[in-house]
Design a protein that fits this description.
With about 210 residues, the chain is of the alpha+beta class. The chain is built from five helices and 13 strands.
Length: about 210
């Protein structure tokens, strides 16, 4: 647990040498029954068959119909990922993650191979290739009316930022906003446009490697 303290994220890549050693151990019983001259080729065939099984199983979990003869060897493609331990995982179980990686484009295999919580508050993600950019985003149902945590509204193209302050104070009450004045500042033509500009998009955090 000390390697992944609360409110932290750790990135990793899979070492193919360790994966090969793991497969050799798992397949050693089958390899022993092969003649010595067929040991290497037989082991390779077994690894190829296992790669196909894992490939098909992974796509079925994602609701996709896998091809019988995949275009790439699942066990040989480079993989990287991260472990996130945070209250975000518990409080927002629908958190969205998008990733871009150095993996070669594949029409059947997505960039993210596995994405799921593995313990309370711990999120595991495995991606094809080396991660180039990672985006954490609030669930889409987090779309709300209002301002962001800094008291700002972003609107227009190109995007402009308006700092919303209390434009009118009711005596004895909390600060309130003068909607008419705010509508004027946003240059809204009507209530529909005002509502659209007041939408607060889900918060997101981007991590990028250059």
């Amino acid at each position: 647990a000390s390697l992944l303290p609360p409110e932290s994220v750790r990135f990793f890549h899979l070492d193919d040498n360790w994966i090969d050693a793991l497969l050799d151990g798992a397949l050693s019983l089958a390899a022993r029954v092969l003649p010595e001259e067929q040991d290497i080729s037989g082991r390779k065939d077994l690894q190829s068959a296992l790669s196909k099984i894992v490939y098909q199983y992974r796509l079925r979990l994602q609701g996709k119909d896998p091809q019988w003869k995949p275009g790439e060897n699942y066990m040989e493609i480079p993989k990287s990922g991260f472990l996130l331990r945070s209250s975000v995982v518990t409080n927002w179980p629908g958190i969205e993650v998008t990733a871009t990686s150095s993996g070669a484009p594949d029409q059947t295999m997505p960039n993210i191979l596995r994405f799921e919580p593995v313990a309370d508050g711990v999120l595991f993600c495995l991606a094809r290739g080396s991660l180039n950019q990672l985006t954490f985003r609030e669930p889409r149902e987090g779309l709300t009316f209002g301002v962001n945590s800094k008291g700002e509204i972003e609107f227009g193209q190109p995007v402009e930022t308006l700092n919303v302050k209390a434009l009118r104070r009711a005596e004895g009450l909390a600060d309130v906003i003068d909607i008419a004045a705010l509508k004027s500042k946003l240059a809204c033509a009507g209530s529909a446009q005002f509502a659209a500009k007041m939408i607060r998009r889900p918060e997101e955090q981007v991590i990028e490697w250059k």
